[in-house]
Amino acid sequence: MNLPLLGAADIEALGPTGAVDALEAALRGGLDPETAPARHHLTVPGGELLIMPATTQQVTGVKIAGVAPANPARGLPRITGSYLLLDAPTLLPLALLDGAALTTLRTPAVSALAIRHLTGPVVRHLVLFGTGPQAYSHLTAVLAERQVERITVVGRNQQRADALAAHALRLGTDARTAEAPGAKEVATADLVLCCTTSAIALFDGALVPDGATVVAVGSHTPDAREVDTALVARSAVFVESRSAALSEAGDLLIPMAEGAFRAEDIHGNLAELVTGRAPGGELARFEGPRFFKSVGMGWEDLAVAAAVHRNSAP
Q1: Whole-model pTM above 0.70?
Q2: Is 190 exposed, middle or buried (0-12, 13-18, 19+ CB in 10 A)?
């Protein structure tokens, strides 16, 4: 069997809007993130191996991804892997996809889907923490969804932060870097994106204005977080699924351990947000910030991989 190999160019051809639409269609079609298979973790010499299965009535798939923290210092990508897409009724392979490129498209698409339902059409000030591949791809995804008037890039490496700000300028958006690492910039933000490998909070959550949206995607372990307890405690919190967040999201688990947040305080999962079924009344009446925490789930990879496969068909 000659299995089609779908590389980065095939995956990028779907585009951020195509990926967001694929995720939204899956949720509106009845996919329940709470019943999606859990991610499996295996510690290996190079870092961590993640095995992420998922299935629908039409397609089944599994991503095998590596997280290698030492790779960037070697000039290699931190995220590696492959995705095997199969026909669900027969389990015959349909395609093999570049797992790293799929993750680079899928992760910001999940964030952009939340942003589609949590923000207005115009973002006056976007504060972007991070300077790696996910920061670039999140910028692309947000610009595809929203009109952004101003961007501030916050990064530990000034040269990389300058490069990302220059990239944003080339995309037609007013952009600059933060004069100091981070904190005060969020006080004027209406959208904050956290795309870092930090294990500690990046800024003082008390500074985030009411009505602003914060998205955090950088961590998926119980002992790491990008936002602090102050932000979580005052926010309407949304997650991909409660089950995944309450097993992997340190951004929520640490405030829970401190007694400042409870599982029942989660406003809704992504399906409830997209379909308007999130509990807690009208979100517009909520006075605090909105916080979306993503850890990454296998159903998201499957939805986007299937869309890439359809898009690449002759």
Answers
A1: yes
A2: buried
